[in-house]
Amino acid sequence: MVSSNQYEAHRNDAAVDPLLGVGSMTNHTSSMTRREAVSSLATLTGAAAMGTALASSLRPHPVRAAASEIKPKRVAGIATVYFPGSHCDVIFGKILEGWKQTGGPGPALELTGLYFDQFPKDDIGREMARKHGVRIYDTIEGAITQGTGDVAVEAIICIGEHGDYPHNDLGQDLYPRKRFLSEIAATLEKCGTIVPVFNDKHIATTWEDAKWSYDRMRALKVPFLAGSSLPLTFRKPDLDIPMGAPIEELVGFGYGEFDRYGFHALECFQTIAERRRGAESGVEWVQCFSGDEMWQAIDDGLVSRELVEAAARIVPNNGRELRKAVKFDNSGILCFRYRDGVRGAVCMFNGYATGTAVAFRTKGGKTSALQIEERTEPRFPHFAYLTKAIERMVHTGKSPYPAERTLLTGGILDRALHSRYQGGKRIDTPELAIAYQPVDYPHAPHTDLSADPTAPF
To answer: What digits encode the pLDDT tens for the residues 206-224?
Structure first.
């Protein structure tokens, strides 16, 4: 059996994903399944009620068909641009050409209509559409209705990332996510038919647009999934963190532009934070520290030095000393406090970090840290696991994990950027009192890409 202090022990037996051919990890500490172990360990760490609820929902189910035996569902793709390496390439490409994008097995989805907002010089959207016999439409409504006067698809995938769009004074990329979701919602409402919708990354750039878009989807009762691919990627070490874990504080590391890459770091962070006991009820204030104030926040204890050091050791980095490496002009600490009193901080330490990581402390002072891996081969496999989640929603009609997580993540980021613009002012965030019930959805490689998308995960 697994002892009460082993829930943070990582898996260390190598395995291979049969579809992607990438290394995975297995746990030899117990003969239980991962979900059963997590449930049992949650009980041992003081989350008995939640553990019991999980266990009761995990009774054996009958074996179901593989995804290859499931009839594909028709999907419309709405996107900004489609070029090599774009989010379109690694999501639509997996639908068109398989998980590895080499013509092998793929999701039980079929693209039947496309809309692109822009066609850059390196566009491959038109070529891919011709190759696979998919029509490109001039309007979002056209891609959804396909000349029928009604909704002609069983789901919609919306990718508002990349392309030639302006920035605002906060440094936010003004991608047309709200416009896309607004036109999708208008078409569904006009036709009187509701189908699942996936929205890549932010629900919308600004908090106001994101909340409007989220409310619009909820008002129409649209099964709605959103967010980054990175919460579904491989982790190193591969920690088992049970739902209801006694997490008391967290620090994340990220890199790159605050808006585009800060969202990835924050949503990976929130994927861990939401597993704490009693989560999730939202965030009460947000503050962004820049320059010397970053170090002052750490030295004063507002941000845990111990967790910063733990995250710095595990995150991919350039090997230089942290405080000498960080570039002040494009770095900062996004600091916030949850409504239950738990503190969080995401350090965007450009010049040092070249990847993403999260460190956390549990009751009793135990510190753990993990790297969020960004593997590139085969063809950014974390997007395969995201596409599997999309496939699950399309076939079940239910989002596999809450869109509220993405809404909260985007809200924290938006308010942090406002704080940064205002010289580090602390911003109270009553609007971020977003409560939701987190779901123990597996990350790579613990999802079988070949499995029946309607089977329990």
So the answer is: 999 999 999 999 999 999 9
How are strands ordered across the β-sheet holding 427-428?
235-236, 367-372, 356-362, 247-254, 343-348, 332-338, 283-289, 427-428
Query: What is the rounded average pLDDT of the residues 78-97?
Result: 98
Helix, strand, coil percentages (3-state) for the chain, rounded to 5, are 35, 20, 45
130 assigned to some structural domain? yes
CATH number of the domain bearing residue 193: 3.40.50.720
Among 184, 211, 230, give the residue marking a domain's end.
Answer: 230
pLDDT at 19: 77
Domain count across the chain: 2
Tokens linked to 145: 């209705």
Indicate the SS3 state at residue 350.
Answer: coil
Q: How many whole angstroms separate alpha carbon 295 and alpha carbon 282?
A: 26
- For 247-280, write each residue's pLDDT tens digit: 999 999 999 999 999 999 999 999 999 999 999 9
Nearest CA among 442, 375, 457 for reference residue 21? 375
Q: What is the pTM of this model?
A: 0.88
Strand intervals (E) in 235-326: 235-236, 247-254, 283-289
Domain of 319, CATH number, reads: 3.30.360
Question: Is the domain of 190 the same as that of 260?
Answer: no
For residue 140, the enclosing domain spans 67-230
